[in-house]
Structures are given as structure tokens and as C-alpha cells.
Specification:
The chain is an alpha/beta fold and 305 residues long. The protein folds into two domains: 171 residues, NAD(P)-binding Rossmann-like Domain (Rossmann fold, 3-Layer(aba) Sandwich), CATH 3.40.50.720; 116 residues, Orthogonal Bundle (N-(1-d-carboxylethyl)-l-norvaline Dehydrogenase, domain 2), CATH 1.10.1040.10. It has twelve helices and nine strands. Helix 8 packs across helix 10. The longest helix has 29 residues. The protein starts with 7 loop residues before the first strand and ends in a 22-residue tail after the last helix. The relative contact order is 0.10.
Length: 305
């Protein structure tokens, strides 16, 4: 494996997860290049170390490993091949033998096809969806669900461990990482929807929401999503760390994967409809805990002074 000082790493997408991942790489001593469509965000990050690139092509030319932390497959393709495939992405500038690490939640079949496409360009590919939230990304303790050929791992495995507390190697080619991430998103989406439903019922029945939260988080009905997301509801803070529309997309991918093998997912289908309802009601860009706003006849907590 290569050492941090000899590996030039580029990270594209300094959002809630990407900014923490970039900070972890910088702490680990990697020669770090960053890009974000908001140039001021990249420039601000680079003030404490690293280089802010003006384009993904500039970043790709400079780096041995490129980590993409964007929202979906369409954005990933734009990163690699440019808007509308115009060739201005990083794939054209990356050197033969470089590695592209894809951290988005995507259709596993799309990920398999991307591995084959990049292989024809002489590039290695790591299917590497992530989970754990912004705080764990910032502390280097998130989870990565990876699948790749051994040649790709050989060039970037140490770097993956610099970003994540758990790096699971789930297969020797792309696809398995994305499948496991989609199953994780099934549970995450259903748990958020169920948590919102439970809190909404408590509010409807006149239960003190702070007391309900305290009881549930110390009882068998608790889940990580209840504990995390219902705290947002109690604080009346719907700042989007993960937006409602993320679960419209991700639960859609869950259902697409199951539909292909005619596998029934009744809970996932219901949760997907709840997020769809929240999105069309005007809450698409709010935190995913805003799914609670679809329930009628309840008075949500107000921000505490």
C-alpha cells in the first residue's frame, strides 16, 4: 500500500458528508485536492490545508485517487464525463491506473456498468457507498460498504480506512456495496417514517413530546433514527442534513431493486409514499424528519428560546 505522503487524493463534493471525509483525509496527511460546485466552500476548506481546484478536470489530472461524494448517479456521471457527456469531467484527465471511488447511493446495476466503462478507460473503480451521518464522517468513524477488484484496493485501501471506522469489503467487483447500502436505506427510511408516525401519535394524544422522547430512547422501541431524527423535531430544526427528497430517491431505488426480482416490500412502499407526500407538500428540501409534517391535526414543537 502507498503511504499518505505519496498519494495525491481528490475529493469532489463538500456537503455534509464530503466535508467531514475531506477533513479526515487532511488529518491523515494526504496531499489533498478538493472541488465543490460552490467555489467559496472549496476555498474556505482549503484555508486550513489542501488545494481548492477550479474544476473536476483539474482535480482529476492532479490526483492518484478521486473520491466522489455527490447525490446520485446523474451527478456522478457529470463528475466523470461532464454535463451531458461533453467530456469535461475528471475521467478524461485522470492518469491511467488512477482510482475512482464512488460514494453515492445508486442502482447496483448502474455501478456494475460504470466499473466496466472506467476499466475500458484504464481506470480502477471502487463501489463505496457510505453511512453514519455527518458527525461520524467528520470524526473518521463512518461506515463504507465497498466492492472492487483487488488492483483497486491495492491503490487506495489505506485511504479508505483514513475516512471510515469500518470499511467492509463485500465483493471483488462492483455491485455488492451498492446492494448492501440500498438495504441499509430500506431500514433507515422505514425507521424514520415509523419514528415520525410514533411522535405524531404522541402529539395527537397530548403526550409531552420531550417526555415521550426520553422514555422511548431508554426503552425497547428505540432506534438510532428515532433518537437522531426526533431530536430535530423537538428542536424544530429542519435544516437538511439529509433531505426528504433523498429518501424519495433512495426508497425508490429499494423498490426498483426488489421489483426486478418480484420481491414484495410492503413497509418500504408505505414509507416511500410518506416521503413522496412530504415532498409534494413542499418539504422536499427540508430535513428528512420533516416527514412528520404530513400528519394532520397535530401541533409540532416550536423552537425553544
Amino acid at each position: 500500500m502507498t503511504s499518505p505522503n505519496s498519494t495525491k487524493v481528490g475529493l469532489i463534493g463538500l456537503g455534509a458528508m464530503g466535508s467531514g471525509m475531506a477533513a479526515s483525509l487532511r488529518r491523515a496527511g494526504y496531499d489533498l485536492h478538493v472541488f465543490d460546485v460552490r467555489q467559496e466552500v472549496a476555498d474556505t476548506f482549503a484555508k486550513d490545508g489542501g488545494r481548492a481546484c477550479k474544476s473536476v478536470a483539474e482535480l482529476g489530472a492532479a490526483c492518484d485517487v478521486v473520491v466522489s461524494v455527490v447525490v446520485n448517479s446523474a451527478q456522478t456521471e457529470a463528475v466523470l464525463f461532464g454535463p451531458n457527456g461533453d467530456g469535461t469531467g475528471c475521467a478524461a484527465s485522470m492518469r491511467t491506473g488512477s482510482v475512482f471511488v464512488m460514494c453515492s447511493t445508486v442502482d447496483p446495476n448502474w455501478s456494475v456498468a460504470l466499473e466496466a466503462k472506467l476499466e475500458k478507460l484504464g481506470l480502477h473503480y471502487v463501489d463505496a457507498p457510505i453511512s453514519g451521518g455527518a458527525a461520524k464522517a467528520a470524526s473518521g468513524e463512518m461506515t463504507m460498504m465497498t466492492a472492487a477488484k483487488q488492483a483497486a484496493y491495492a491503490k487506495c485501501e489505506a485511504m479508505l480506512h483514513a475516512m471510515a471506522g469500518k470499511v467492509y469489503k463485500l465483493g471483488d467487483h462492483a455491485g455488492a456495496g451498492s446492494k448492501v447500502k440500498i438495504i441499509n436505506q430500506l431500514l433507515a427510511g422505514v425507521h424514520i417514517a415509523a419514528a415520525a408516525e410514533a411522535m405524531a401519535l404522541g402529539l395527537r394524544e397530548g403526550v409531552n413530546p420531550d417526555a415521550l422522547y426520553d422514555v422511548i430512547t431508554h426503552s425497547a422501541g428505540n432506534s438510532w433514527m428515532f433518537e437522531n431524527r426526533m431530536a430535530h423535531v423537538l428542536a424544530a430544526d429542519y435544516t437538511p442534513l439529509s433531505a426528504v427528497d433523498i429518501f424519495v430517491k433512495d426508497l425508490g431505488l429499494v423498490l426498483d431493486m426488489a421489483r426486478a426480482s418480484k420481491f414484495p416490500l410492503p413497509l418500504s412502499s408505505t414509507a416511500h409514499q410518506m416521503f413522496m407526500q412530504a415532498s409534494t407538500a413542499g418539504f422536499a428540501k427540508e430535513d428528512d424528519s420533516a416527514v412528520i409534517k404530513i400528519f394532520p391535526g397535530i401541533e409540532l414543537p416550536q423552537a425553544k428560546k
